[in-house]
Specification:
The chain is of the alpha/beta class. It is 31% helix and 27% strand.
Length: 213
């Protein structure tokens, strides 16, 4: 799916089943997503939100059912883990998502400034605090761009001021596209989401739906 004048197919989850041993995390779960906007999956830890997101990303194959509309999408992910390459600097971790190294390094410096990490460009992940590593991971995802942003507890370990700034940047970059935010933080859901699905589980189920006023 591309948003450059092409006909788009909406993202849908149909009768999804996912087991881990004897535990069913998804058991016939279905959900339709809008073509654009920020959708929040809000619920307690361990209810199945991350499993659903991984299935949408194609990283965790379903045992039954299907995800429709994600084929051909350029998908950008922020995982719960930072997943930075420890032998690369902050700048090089971001540059790695670009085809051209030269362009990637220049773009990486710009993105690091946008998340307030100027001066940390040459530092390795092990030399950064947890919050700084988080910002590098977010900057890498936003630099990569795409049709679909999958954000799994993206703002953890950020102080209140930095979180506000990075949330505003993320919302701005995702505007006009589809974003799926996984969180159990009510403030993040209220600030960012156009629609919030209140979830419980496992197995994952929709308890309520809240539209942004």
């Amino acid at each position: 799916m591309r948003l450059e004048g092409r006909i788009t197919m909406r993202l849908r989850v149909r009768n999804a089943v996912k087991r881990f041993g004897d535990k069913k995390v998804l058991d016939g779960f279905s959900m339709d997503f809008p073509e654009k906007g920020m959708v929040c999956l809000f619920g307690p830890s361990g209810c199945g939100k991350t499993t659903l997101l991984s299935s949408i990303a194609g990283l965790s194959p379903l045992d039954g059912g299907a995800v429709e509309g994600n084929r051909g999408m350029k998908i950008s992910c922020v995982f719960q883990e930072d997943r930075l390459l420890p032998w690369l600097s902050a700048r090089e971790n971001i540059a790695a998502v670009f085809r051209s190294r030269g362009d990637g390094l220049a773009q990486a410096d710009r993105w690091l400034r946008r998340v307030g990490l100027e001066g940390a460009e040459g530092k390795l992940p092990g030399q950064l605090s947890g919050g700084m590593r988080r910002r590098v991971a977010i900057a890498r995802s936003l630099a990569f761009g795409g049709d679909l942003f999958l954000l799994d507890e993206p703002f953890q370990r950020l102080d209140a001021r930095t979180k506000k700034q990075v949330m505003e940047l993320t919302g701005s970059e995702a505007e006009g596209r589809l974003g799926i935010l996984v969180t159990h933080d009510a403030g993040e859901a209220e600030a960012m989401a156009d629609v919030t699905y209140i979830l419980d589980g496992p197995p994952l189920k929709i308890v309520a739906i809240r539209q942004k006023k």
